[in-house]
């Protein structure tokens, strides 16, 4: 049976993908940039538009990473504004479960679902580091072993709040209600939350907003299998994707769920050209722009645990060994467990290919996923989905605000011709776009 492809767009904030130097690059914080990207995604009939969020900018020795976005507005506020200039596009936000509270988050997401007519989604994430925790009153950080226990209880509590309204307790225009007994009473006592009262926003149009989860650990996979509607996956290579897809889908049965109840959507990038050679040349230019001299040194310092600012990014790797007891990086989690192993692999690769520091970082950082002509990229997207490496993709453009334009104008029509992607929206809610069960 031919599967239908799901597409979404991601506008990151803390990242190393944005190419500031491109003359087509515009503002990363003006509402018009968000509006252009969202309306382009809706023109392409995408399922949803997804905003990432970092609660603290990444730093290295006090220097903010040169591709991170400074001054980014808060995501749910932006999406609420976008709900007025879109009609069908889903609106997804990353909201942290470590440094927020269930009542506040549930209220804001229910409000977005009402404002948009049932198009809200929540990417549930956790944080591990004390650097981010410094921004919050309790300070410090949540022990890594407790991150997912809090996230599970956080989501459970939010759902209790959304479900606390009886289905027939609907607001009247004068602000009173049909059945006062059905209005929002909740009481939750657990390891992380002990709250009770009345939830003051009616049940969302979707019942619950769509839940997205991005964890790839064992705990993250189980959390997604038990509770999520979408996984924001990092597995964008064909065989890796198939392995991840099988592993997560097999976990669903023990939670009374089917394969259709959870969509796996890897984060991907793309570069188009009139020929394969032209696309590959563009991709190489983009990668070099994404890994400038400062970024290359910062990536290396994150592994070496040393100040390497005196080294030439276009020269060889340092001849000193990593300091595994020190972490000079702030706000990064990628290398905290396996720095020694990563350093050994990087040194071997640099020696094998005679790579400079910058060339090594370009080689090891994630390359563009789909590189080619519009037709070859459309064929590759379809191959991933039809062979169960994914249910679709979340595209991360390297340009703002026009980074989706050629994908929508050149690739989407080819997928529509193949009959594997919708020609138009057929329902009003994000849950409908994703083919998820409607909640009672």
UniProtKB/TrEMBL annotation:
<dbReference type="InterPro" id="IPR051260">
    <property type="entry name" value="Diverse_substr_monoxygenases"/>
</dbReference>
<dbReference type="GO" id="GO:0004497">
    <property type="term" value="F:monooxygenase activity"/>
</dbReference>
<keyword id="KW-0503">Monooxygenase</keyword>
<dbReference type="InterPro" id="IPR011251">
    <property type="entry name" value="Luciferase-like_dom"/>
</dbReference>
<feature type="domain" description="Luciferase-like">
    <location>
        <begin position="24"/>
        <end position="387"/>
    </location>
</feature>
<dbReference type="Pfam" id="PF00296">
    <property type="entry name" value="Bac_luciferase"/>
</dbReference>
<keyword id="KW-0560">Oxidoreductase</keyword>
<feature type="binding site">
    <location>
        <position position="148"/>
    </location>
    <ligand>
        <name>FMN</name>
    </ligand>
</feature>
<keyword id="KW-0285">Flavoprotein</keyword>
<comment type="similarity">
    <text>Belongs to the NtaA/SnaA/DszA monooxygenase family.</text>
</comment>
<protein>
    <submittedName>
        <fullName>NtaA/DmoA family FMN-dependent monooxygenase</fullName>
        <ecNumber>1.14.-.-</ecNumber>
    </submittedName>
</protein>
<feature type="binding site">
    <location>
        <position position="94"/>
    </location>
    <ligand>
        <name>FMN</name>
    </ligand>
</feature>
<dbReference type="GO" id="GO:0016705">
    <property type="term" value="F:oxidoreductase activity, acting on paired donors, with incorporation or reduction of molecular oxygen"/>
</dbReference>
<keyword id="KW-0288">FMN</keyword>
<dbReference type="InterPro" id="IPR016215">
    <property type="entry name" value="NTA_MOA"/>
</dbReference>
<dbReference type="InterPro" id="IPR036661">
    <property type="entry name" value="Luciferase-like_sf"/>
</dbReference>
<feature type="binding site">
    <location>
        <position position="217"/>
    </location>
    <ligand>
        <name>FMN</name>
    </ligand>
</feature>
């Amino acid at each position: 049976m031919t599967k239908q492809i799901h597409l979404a767009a991601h506008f990151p904030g803390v990242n190393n993908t944005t190419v500031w130097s491109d003359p087509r690059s515009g503002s990363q914080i003006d509402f018009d940039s968000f509006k252009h990207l969202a309306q382009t995604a809706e023109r392409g009939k995408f399922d949803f538009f997804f905003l990432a969020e970092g609660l603290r900018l990444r730093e290295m020795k006090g220097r903010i990473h040169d591709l991170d976005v400074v001054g980014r507005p808060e995501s749910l506020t932006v999406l609420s504004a976008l709900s007025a200039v879109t009609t069908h596009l889903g609106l997804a936000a990353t909201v942290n479960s470590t440094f927020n509270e269930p009542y506040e988050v549930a209220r804001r997401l229910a409000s977005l679902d009402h404002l948009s007519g049932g198009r809200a989604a929540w990417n549930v994430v956790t944080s591990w580091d004390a650097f981010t925790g410094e921004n919050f009153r309790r300070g410090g950080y949540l022990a890594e072993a407790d991150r997912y226990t809090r996230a599970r209880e956080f989501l459970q509590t939010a759902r209790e709040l959304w479900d606390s309204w009886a289905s027939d307790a609907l607001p009247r225009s004068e602000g009173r209600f049909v059945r006062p007994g059905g209005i929002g009473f909740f009481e939750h006592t657990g390891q992380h939350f002990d709250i009770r009262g009345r939830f003051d926003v009616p049940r969302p149009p979707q019942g619950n907003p769509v839940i997205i989860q991005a964890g790839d650990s064992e705990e993250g996979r189980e959390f997604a299998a038990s509770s999520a509607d979408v996984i924001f996956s990092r597995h964008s290579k064909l065989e890796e994707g198939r392995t991840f897809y099988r592993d997560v889908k097999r976990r669903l049965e023990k939670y009374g769920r089917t394969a259709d109840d959870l969509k796996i959507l890897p984060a991907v990038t793309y570069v188009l050209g009139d020929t394969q050679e032209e696309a590959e040349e563009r991709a190489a230019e983009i990668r070099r722009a994404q890994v400038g001299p400062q970024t290359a040194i910062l990536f290396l310092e994150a592994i070496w645990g040393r100040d390497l600012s005196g080294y030439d990014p276009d020269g060889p790797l340092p001849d000193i060994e990593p300091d595994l007891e020190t972490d000079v990086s702030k706000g990064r989690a990628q290398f905290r467990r396996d720095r020694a192993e990563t350093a050994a692999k990087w040194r071997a690769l640099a020696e094998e290919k005679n790579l400079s520091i910058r060339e090594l970082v370009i080689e090891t950082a994630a390359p563009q996923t789909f590189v080619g002509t519009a037709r070859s990229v459309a064929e590759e997207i379809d191959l991933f989905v039809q062979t169960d490496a994914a249910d679709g993709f979340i595209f991360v453009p390297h340009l703002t605000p026009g980074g989706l334009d050629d994908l929508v104008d050149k690739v989407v029509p080819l997928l529509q011709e193949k009959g594997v992607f919708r020609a138009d929206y057929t329902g009003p809610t994000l849950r409908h776009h994703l083919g998820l069960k409607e909640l009672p």
